[in-house]
Specification:
Peroxidase, domain 2; two-stranded antiparallel sheet; single chain; 2 domains; two-stranded antiparallel ribbon; 301 residues; Peroxidase, domain 1; mainly alpha
């Protein structure tokens, strides 16, 4: 994500709806996705999503991070967010039974990237929604996962280690609960602080997340919390990241090299992030007559 855990924050109203994946030739399904899929059947769809996202993020900048987290979750499992329901309702009024919730989410993630990151990409569409929910499908690494666990998770889903590092840059926006970092701050090897944390950064975190308090939140990026950029990679190099699973990107030559590359080359990271987002959105897709077009994203038809 990209560690595929994402902390539920105050701006996310998240409801887990884990879809049982259907047996489908993934390559053939991906071929049915295309840019401008709704150009004839619902030409206003992408603009409706864009307007909805713009309105939401302008009111609450943190929502951009929520949408991206949701997109990452949806591609590994399946979840929903109120903003997607809002866009879906407007699209249903304009084009009933035409645009899937999965595509609405993909558009919203792209538009969030544009608003808080200043760059965009063309996202193929044509996905259909799943029809079966299974909460046991969730299998997300924790914030303290090691590099091997993270790599295995991505590879198992058909993504590369490079995709993992590029998508990890999404941790430059949003907030996390103090309970997700308490063990690293206060109980590392007993009652110590993780020595891989920069001491000054650790001290600042302890003020926001004391040992006795686990209900607070703190920015994932201490420098530019509402800007999707390559600051995350500078933070990793400086040992100023919340999760040990972020810091573990320095534990192999390949991932450390990519961290260094992205920390000094914003354009390279943007290009690789966009490409990885497109690949992520092509995982285990349902197309054609498979699945359904949900009338409401939180409820199967």
């Amino acid at each position: 994500m990209m560690k595929m855990y994402w902390v539920v924050t105050w701006f996310m109203k998240l409801c887990m709806l884990c879809m049982l994946l259907m047996t489908l030739d993934t390559t053939e399904a991906q071929k049915q996705l295309k840019v401008g899929f709704y150009q004839t059947t619902c030409p206003a769809a992408e603009q409706i999503v864009r307007d909805t996202v713009n309105k939401s993020v302008t009111t609450n900048p943190g929502m951009a991070a929520g949408i991206l987290r949701l997109y990452f979750h949806d591609c590994f499992v399946r979840v929903r967010l109120e903003i997607i329901d809002q866009a879906k309702a407007q699209i249903e009024a304009a084009c009933p039974n035409t645009v899937s919730c999965a595509d609405i989410l993909a558009f919203a993630a792209r538009d969030s990237t544009t608003i808080v990151g200043g760059f965009s990409y063309a996202i193929p569409s044509g996905r259909r929604d799943g029809t079966i929910s299974n909460i046991d499908e969730v299998d997300l690494p924790s914030p303290d996962s090691d590099l091997n666990t993270l790599q295995n998770t991505f590879v198992a889903k058909g993504l590369s280690v490079g995709d993992m590092v590029a998508l990890s840059g999404a941790h430059s926006i949003g907030r996390a609960g103090c309970n997700s970092v308490t063990s690293r701050l206060h109980f590392f090897n007993g009652d110590q602080t993780d020595p891989s944390l920069d001491p000054t950064y650790a001290a600042a975190l302890k003020e926001k997340c004391p040992k006795s308090g686990k209900s607070g939140t703190t920015n994932l990026d201490p420098v530019s919390a509402n800007r999707l950029d390559n600051q995350y990679y500078l933070n990793v190099k400086q040992h100023k990241v919340l999760f040990s699973s972020d810091q573990t990107l320095l534990d192999s030559e390949l991932t450390a090299t990519l961290v260094t590359k992205y920390s000094s080359n914003l354009t390279a990271w943007r290009n690789d992030f966009a490409a990885a987002m497109i690949r992520l959105g092509s995982l285990d897709v349902l197309t054609g007559n498979n699945g359904e077009i949900r009338n409401k994203c939180g409820v199967r038809n």
